């Protein structure tokens, strides 16, 4: 009996240490699971699809049949083998993958549009590096059969105009089934995909082909919007499309002087807003912008490229939304656009992703608490309770 009791006493410190270690493991695991997984559900769960006119009076069945639910994001900039550090790539790709997969699971969109600059080094990547980037993209942005993914080309995917080649354009088109001047019609809604890098206006082979397709598509759409009793010989043999005015999807924004008029928490920083934009580099040229407005008379334009949010009204009636970057490498508060769209109307709502600064704050607070607990356990730091107790004892002794 005596030997048994002594063994129990000897094992008690070891059991306490193991118990404390288990508590630490549980604490650290909980913080990691929350910051790297659960936080995306907590934040994106708060996002709601916006209502369109008449949508509030429709039944759920009628709404799902007539309203197209679209997610729009831009500038993912998957890092390549040249400039991308492996740790940076691992972190950013995990963040974007978790955000995208969580958004698909919670929001269940009909279609997702990515407005260019999918890759960061597509403009100069080798065939092997390109294949690796595409493989990682497909893993991160995989989607169910109930959702469609449409990807627009950006300057980092095929290079700026002076770097753009037919080989790079065809390589991108082969992977993403993208063609400039392509029309996508869903639920009677017309979306026009534009290779804005090819809107240079200098007659280069890619530019010439791209503009010819856009002009032909413009003719089809304009014929489709004419009234049945309107006689136009040029439209007699043209394929009829839904009469809905189109929505333009492109990477470069239409021409604007700067971001000076842009507002919102995810607009450009104050020190950058008044910097003038360079035509054909930051935005499309005035000539190319006027062409697109004249050819298509769109009801909405969605663009990326600037990494910051902006709303512009062209010609006093055509709204353009610049979608901010989806990558934490480009901003602390990434977001995407949720759009409820019908053939005659649309409503947009922004959905912010977790702020990286807040995640970092949680990690710092958890780390500080962890250090305090460890020091208190090994009695290098006197817990406040015992410290107060000692002060009381000394006071009584006096």
TrEMBL record:
Subcellular localization(s) per the UniProt record: Endoplasmic reticulum-Golgi intermediate compartment membrane
Transmembrane intervals: 20-43, 360-387
Gene Ontology, cellular component aspect: endomembrane system; endoplasmic reticulum-Golgi intermediate compartment membrane
Residue intervals of the Calcineurin-like phosphoesterase domain: 69-308
UniProt xrefs under Gene3D superfamilies: 3.60.21.10
InterPro entries: Calcineurin-like_PHP (IPR004843), Metallo-depent_PP-like (IPR029052), MPP_MPPE1 (IPR039541), PGAP5/Cdc1/Ted1 (IPR033308)
Needed co-factor(s): Mn(2+)
GO biological-process terms attached to the record: endoplasmic reticulum to Golgi vesicle-mediated transport; GPI anchor biosynthetic process
UniProt main location, coarse: endoplasmic reticulum
Gene Ontology MF term list: metal ion binding; phosphoric diester hydrolase activity
Keyword terms: ER-Golgi transport, GPI-anchor biosynthesis, Hydrolase, Manganese, Membrane, Metal-binding, Transmembrane, Transmembrane helix, Transport
Membrane topology: Multi-pass membrane protein
Similarity comment: family membership: Belongs to the metallophosphoesterase superfamily. MPPE1 family.
Function recorded in the entry: Metallophosphoesterase that catalyzes the removal of a side-chain ethanolamine-phosphate (EtNP) from the second mannose of the GPI-anchor protein intermediate. Participates in the glycan remodeling steps of GPI-anchor maturation to allow an efficient transport of GPI-anchor proteins from the endoplasmic reticulum to the Golgi.
Name under which the protein is recorded: Metallophosphoesterase 1
UniProt organism field: Dicrurus megarhynchus
């Amino acid at each position: 009996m005596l030997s048994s009791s002594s063994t129990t006493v000897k094992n008690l410190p070891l059991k306490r240490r193991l118990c404390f270690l288990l508590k630490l493991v549980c604490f650290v695991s909980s913080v990691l699971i929350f910051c790297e997984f659960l936080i995306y559900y907590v934040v994106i769960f708060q996002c709601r699809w916006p209502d369109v006119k008449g949508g509030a009076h429709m039944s759920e069945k009628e709404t799902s049949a007539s309203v197209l639910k679209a997610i729009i994001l831009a500038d993912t900039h998957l890092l390549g083998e040249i400039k991308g550090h492996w740790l940076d790539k691992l972190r950013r790709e995990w963040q974007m993958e978790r955000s995208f997969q969580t958004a698909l699971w919670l929001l269940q969109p009909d279609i997702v549009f990515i407005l260019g600059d999918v890759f960061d080094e597509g403009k100069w990547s080798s065939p092997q590096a390109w294949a690796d980037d595409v493989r990682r993209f497909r893993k991160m942005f995989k989607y169910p059969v109930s959702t469609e993914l449409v990807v627009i080309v950006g300057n980092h995917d095929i290079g700026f105009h002076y770097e753009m080649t037919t080989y790079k354009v065809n390589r991108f088109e082969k992977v993403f089934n993208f063609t400039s001047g392509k029309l996508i019609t869903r639920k009677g809604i017309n979306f026009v995909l534009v290779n804005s890098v090819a809107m240079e206006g200098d007659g280069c082979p890619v530019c010439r082909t791209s503009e010819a397709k856009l002009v032909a598509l413009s003719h089809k759409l304009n014929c489709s919007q004419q009234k049945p009793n309107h006689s136009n010989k040029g439209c007699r043999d043209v394929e009829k499309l839904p009469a809905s005015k189109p929505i333009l999807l492109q990477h470069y924004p239409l021409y604007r002087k700067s971001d000076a008029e842009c507002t919102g928490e995810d607009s450009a920083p104050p020190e950058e807003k008044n910097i003038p934009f360079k035509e054909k580099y930051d935005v499309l040229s005035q000539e190319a912008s006027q062409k697109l407005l004249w050819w298509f008379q769109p009801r909405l334009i969605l663009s990326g490229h600037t990494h910051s949010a902006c709303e512009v009204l062209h010609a006093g009636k055509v709204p353009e939304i610049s979608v901010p970057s989806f990558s934490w490498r480009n901003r602390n508060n990434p977001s995407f656009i949720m759009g409820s769209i019908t053939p005659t109307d649309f409503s947009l709502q922004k959905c912010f992703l977790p702020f990286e600064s807040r995640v970092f704050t949680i990690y710092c607070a958890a780390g500080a608490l962890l250090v305090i607990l460890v020091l208190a356990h090994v009695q290098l730091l006197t817990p406040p309770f015992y410290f107060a107790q000692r002060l009381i004892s000394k006071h009584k002794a006096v």
